[in-house]
Amino acid sequence: MEYTVTLTAADGFELGATKFEAVGERRGSIVVASATAVPQGFYRRFAEYARQRGFTVLTFDYRGYGLSRPTDLRGFRMDFRDWGRLDLAAAIEAMAQDGGPLYVVGHSYGGHAIGLLPNHHLITRAYAFGVGAGWHGWMPPLERLKIRLLWGVLLPILNAIKGYTPMSWLGLGEDLPLDATNSWRRWCGFPRYFFDDPELPGMAEQFAAVTAPIAFANALDDLWALPQSREAFVWSYVNAPLTRFDIEPNRFPGGLGHMSYFRAKAAPLWDEALDWLTR
Fold it and tell me: What is the DSSP string of the chain?
């Protein structure tokens, strides 16, 4: 069984979410922390798969898009960190009420968001796919050029025209508030993402507070989050036991890249993740 629920963040903002109830003997709860601009529906196959294995799963949309989008994105104010410290935090709080082990399965930004949580102590374990620091210097030359053109030329023009970032025009997911993309762009200009931002002192200390075990799995054809990019970010979880997995993309038809961790062909990875979480 699945049904739509509404989460309320600590600042009162309401978020659209979907809860998938476990089938059979319950093994715990999972909150899916999605990637930037990726709507919760993208993770539906994984949620259905996990519920069949006994997990109650919650998917949700961060503020600003999907079921959590305001009427008008123009002028919508937020902080990019709100997705973790407010939105994911609300999802964690809601699922913790079910009792039992509570896990996070993250994708890209979802692996960043764990360190932003004020209630990370509620998490039993976490497993994240495709986490990296976002800096173009960690990417191969051609991808580096594409990203620099995207950040430096194309998006500023589109942002000025629309008053928000029309990611959907580019086939890159959901449209985003300018506050989100402006911060994303800024932090991707640093080799170690927001840990290198002089305007954000104390970020490393905040991430160091996390003690739950975390696994980071990166496909070797994920040009946005290659292992060196992963290492430039995950060092911050200095007090969390970390496990790293490098995924050979030739295991899967057509490879994986940054987005196929949650497509149907990647189901063997889901078993590996669920087994690791409950080990």
Answer: -EEEEEEE-TTS-EEEEEEEPPPSS--EEEEEEPPTT--GGGGHHHHHHHHHTTEEEEEE--TTSGGG--S--TT----TTHIIIIIIHHHHHHHHTT-S-EEEEEETHHHHHGGG-TTGGG-SEEEEES-----GGGS-HHHHHHHHHIIIIIHHHHHHHHSSB-GGGGTSSS-B-HHHHHHHHHHTTSTTGGGG-TTSTTHHHHHHT--S-EEEEEETT-TTS-HHHHHHHHTT-TTS-EEEEEE-GGGSTT--TTTGGGSGGGHHHHHHHHHHHT-
Residue 210 domain boundaries: 2-277
Over the stretch 31-75, which tens digit does the pLDDT of each residue have? 999 999 999 999 999 999 999 999 999 999 999 999 999 999 999
CATH number where 142 lies? 3.40.50.1820
Rounded Cα gap, residues 84 and 81, in angstroms? 6
User: Which pLDDT belongs to residue 1?
Assistant: 86
Q: Which residues of 37-73 are buried (b: 16+ CB within 10 A; e: fewer)?
A: bbbbebbbebbebbbebebbbbbbbbbbbbbbbeeeb
Domain count, the chain: 1
pLDDT along the chain (279 residues), means of 10: 96 98 95 98 98 98 97 95 98 96 98 98 98 97 95 94 94 95 96 98 97 98 98 98 98 97 98 97
Instruction: Give the residue from 80, 43, 37 showing the smallest Cα distance to 58.
Output: 43
pLDDT in tens, 121-148: 999 999 999 999 999 999 999 999 999 9
What is the pTM (predicted TM-score) of this model?
0.97
